[in-house]
Design brief:
single chain, alpha/beta, Peroxisomal Thiolase, Chain A, domain 1, 2 domains, four-stranded mixed beta sheet, 13 strands, 32% helix, binds acetyl coenzyme *A
C-alpha cells in the first residue's frame, strides 16, 4: 500500500498586513522587505485561531476527497503555535470537524513539520495500520512573533493547509529527513519557564522571551546548503532523475532561498512555485497552502511527481516525493 493525496484545503485569515504597515512598527521599508525576502504582505489572525483555520482547511480537503469526517482514522497536526499544549491541536480539530474515529496528535518540527507529518502518515498507511489520514499544518505565528524585532517580524504570517492522504495499491517513495539538535540555538521559540518548585530559581528565569528568535544569516546558509543536498538524496534513493520531477514544493521562507536552491540544483525557476509574496512565511502551513494553490491554479496534473522540501527549527529538514493523483 502507499499514501496518495486525495484532497487539499487551505484557510488564511482575512486581515492583511502590508509591508508598508510594518514601517510604523519597526525601522524597515517595503522596498527592503521585498528585495531581501520577496514578501509583500501577510495574513494575520484576528478572529481566527490555529484550531479554526486547521478545521476549515481540513473540511475543504475532506470534501474534495469525498470522505466523511467519520472515515478519518488519524489526524496529524504540525504546529509550533498551538492555542493550548493540552488538549493538542489535532484533538481540538477532531472535536470541531467531528472526526470521532480518528486518533489525533500533534507533531513539532517547526517549518519542516508538514513534511515530517506527511512522511509519518505515509508510514502508517504503508504499514497497513490506517487508511485515511488528515495531515494539517496550521500556524498563528503572529502570536509568537516579537513585533519589535525587525529581523523576524517582517517574515511571518498566519494560515493553515491540509491534505487527505489515503491508502491505495502501490509502492511508496523513500523520504530523506534529518535533524541536527546541535545547531538548534540558531532558531528558537522558547516555552514559558518551567518552574522547579523543589529547586533553586534560576536568575532571570521570568525574563525568558517567548518569541521566535533567529540568526537569519545562519538559517539562510543552512537552508541553501542542506535543501539541495536533501533533494539530490531523495531523488537518488528512489532511483529517479531531476527530469522526473515536475515541481519542487519548498517551504516558503524567502524567495532568495528558493532561487538559491534552484540554482544549486541547476533546475529551471518555473519548477519552484512560490507564494510567500502573499502570505509571508507560515512555517508548517506553507507547503500545504502552496500545494492547494497549485491545484486550484491547474498546475498539477495526474502523474506529476513532486518533491516536498521543508527546513526549520530544531534544526530539522527533509524531503519527500509523491505522485499527484
Ligand atoms: N528592515 C531594514 N533593515 C533590516 C531589517 C529590516 N526588516 N532587518 C535587518 N536589517 C538590516 C540589518 O540590521 C543589517 O544592517 P547593517 O548592515 O547596518 O548591519 C542589514 O539590514 C543586513 O542584514 P542581514 O541580516 O545581513 O540581512 P539578510 O540579507 O541576511 O536578510 C533575512 C535578513 C531576510 C532575515 C535573511 O537572513 C533570511 O531570510 N534568513 C532566513 C530566514 C528564514 O528563512 N527563516 C525561517 C526559516 S525556518 C522557519 O520558517 C521558522
Amino acid at each position: 500500500m502507499t499514501g496518495v493525496i486525495k484532497g487539499t484545503g487551505a484557510s488564511v485569515p482575512s486581515y492583511i498586513l502590508e509591508n508598508k504597515d510594518l514601517e510604523s512598527l519597526v525601522e524597515t521599508s517595503d522596498a527592503w522587505i521585498r528585495e531581501r525576502t520577496g514578501i509583500e504582505r501577510r495574513h494575520i489572525a484576528i478572529e481566527e485561531t490555529t484550531v479554526s483555520m486547521a478545521a476549515r482547511a481540513a473540511q475543504e480537503a475532506l470534501e474534495e476527497a469525498k470522505l466523511s469526517p467519520e472515515q478519518i482514522d488519524m489526524i496529524l497536526v504540525s504546529t509550533m503555535s498551538p492555542e493550548d499544549i493540552m488538549p493538542c491541536t489535532a484533538c481540538q480539530v477532531q472535536r470541531e470537524i467531528k472526526a470521532s474515529h480518528a486518533v489525533c496528535f500533534d507533531l513539532s518540527a517547526a517549518c519542516s513539520g508538514f513534511v515530517m507529518a506527511y512522511v509519518t502518515a505515509c508510514a502508517y498507511i504503508e504499514a497497513g495500520i490506517f487508511q485515511n489520514i488528515l495531515v494539517i499544518g496550521s500556524e498563528c505565528l503572529s502570536n509568537v512573533t516579537d513585533w519589535s524585532d525587525r529581523g523576524t517580524c517582517i517574515l511571518f504570517g498566519d494560515g493553515a493547509g491540509a491534505v487527505v492522504v489515503a491508502a491505495e495499491e502501490g509502492t511508496g517513495y523513500l523520504p530523506a529527513i534529518y535533524s541536527d539538535g546541535a545547531r538548534g540555538e540558531a532558531l528558537t521559540l522558547k516555552s514559558r519557564p518551567n518552574h522547579k518548585p523543589f529547586g533553586e530559581e534560576s536568575p532571570g528565569e521570568e525574563e525568558t522571551p517567548c518569541y521566535i528568535q533567529m540568526d537569519g544569516q545562519a538559517i539562510f546558509k543552512f537552508a541553501a546548503r542542506s535543501i539541495p543536498q536533501a533533494i539530490e538524496e531523495v531523488i537518488r534513493r528512489n532511483r529517479l532523475h531531476k527530469g522526473d520531477i515536475a515541481y519542487y514544493v519548498l517551504h516558503q521562507a524567502n524567495e532568495r532561498i528558493v532561487e538559491a536552491v534552484a540554482k544549486r540544483l541547476g533546475e529551471p525557476a518555473y519548477k519552484f512555485p512560490m507564494n510567500m509574496r502573499e502570505y509571508g512565511n507560515t512555517s508548517s502551513a506553507s507547503i500545504p497552502l502552496l500545494l492547494h494553490e497549485m491545484k486550484e491554479q491547474g498546475l498539477l496534473h495526474s502523474g506529476d511527481r513532486l518533491v516536498l522540501a521543508g527546513f526549520g527549527g530544531g534544526l530539522t529538514w527533509g524531503t519527500a516525493i509523491l505522485t499527484w493523483k
